[in-house]
Design brief:
Blueprint (H helix, E strand, L loop, with lengths): L2 H16 L12 E8 L2 E8 L11 E7 L13 H9 L3 E5 L4 H4 L3 H17 L1 H4 L1 E11 L1 H9 L20 E5 L12 H4 L3 H4 L12 E6 L7 H13 L4 E6 L12 H17 L11
Parallel strand pairs: 3-4, 3-5, 5-6, 6-7, 7-8
Antiparallel strand pairs: 1-2, 2-4
Length: 287
């Protein structure tokens, strides 16, 4: 493959993923906090809290979402609807900003570093946030799904200077059409080929991988169904739970709030998955 062809493939990959980046209006977090400062960049968590939230005494389950956009762009608002719903169900739900190429000229390595920093910060501040440090989920879509999956699998890409005694591994994963394999046969390979094995969730599965649910459309032109099925089987082989929810005929980004039917169905299944872990009580309330 010539250098020009490789460059064109990478550019196409970025444009394809960026086209699936989504900004959602009409939702307002209860507060925002800075979880990481690196250089002149401040990264924030947008936090949605339950109606009867009492942070000084609560030990709520929590979740943090990472937006999609090809590690190139995107907005935390993509998962504001998910956060508002889960907060209504009793969780502390957060959507994280993280560094991307279009804003900070960073690589997928920094995206994963920021994902791990976010979970580490949440766990470190669990008492003041009113959450249970042993019930923190990570979720995300597309490249953000990769960031979430990487926090639960990979051991590399920890930010220098952070307290490594605080685990950055979530206790559950909620993944929407995530990039799971960055190997030579994947669409992501040319972006990460110098370190693809270290950053590939598929190649870092262990018995410590958290219980996982994956949502994927069967017509996704970026994430092959075979990749998700292989990921599921490898997790199960380690003795860990992995649910794979396939949506017939659906394309990449099918789950977003703009597609109300798919949004509603995937959120209900997400709810049932979290309830099966004992994190939520009762049936889904979304109509």
């Amino acid at each position: 493959m010539t250098r020009s062809i490789r460059i064109n493939l990478v550019a196409f990959f970025l444009m394809t993923f960026a086209a699936n980046a989504l900004e959602v209006e009409g939702f307002t977090p209860d507060k925002e906090v800075v979880y990481k400062t690196i250089g002149d960049v401040q990264l924030k968590l947008s936090i949605f809290t339950p109606p009867d939230y009492a942070p000084t005494t609560d030990k709520r389950p929590a979740i943090v979402f990472f937006f999609g956009g090809g590690w190139n762009s995107g907005s935390p608002t993509q998962f504001y609807p998910h956060c508002e719903y889960l907060a209504s169900r009793g969780m502390v739900a957060m959507s994280a900003d993280y560094r991307v190429f279009s804003r900070q000229q960073t690589s997928p390595r920094e995206c994963v570093k920021d994902g791990k920093s976010a979970i580490r910060w949440i766990r470190q501040h669990a008492a003041e946030l009113g959450i249970d440090p042993n019930r923190i989920a990570a979720g995300g879509g597309s490249a953000g799904g990769h960031v979430a999956a990487a926090t639960g699998t990979t051991t590399a890409f920890n930010e220098e200077g952070e307290d490594m005694t605080i685990s950055s591994v979530p206790n559950a994963l909620v993944l929407f059409n995530p990039v799971l394999d960055t190997g030579p046969d994947s669409r992501a390979y040319d972006r990460v080929k110098e370190y693809w094995q270290d950053i590939s969730p598929m190649h870092n599965i262990s018995k410590n991988t958290p219980p996982t649910i994956v949502f994927l459309g069967t017509k996704d032109d970026i994430i092959p169904v075979e990749s998700a099925e292989k990921f599921k089987n490898q997790i199960i082989e380690k003795g860990v739970r992995c649910d794979l929810e396939l949506y017939e005929g659906q394309i990449h980004g099918f789950f977003n709030y703009t597609s109300k039917e798919n949004y509603t169905d995937t959120v209900k299944k997400m709810d049932r998955f979290l309830a099966s872990l004992g994190w939520l009580q009762g049936k889904p309330t979304l109509e």
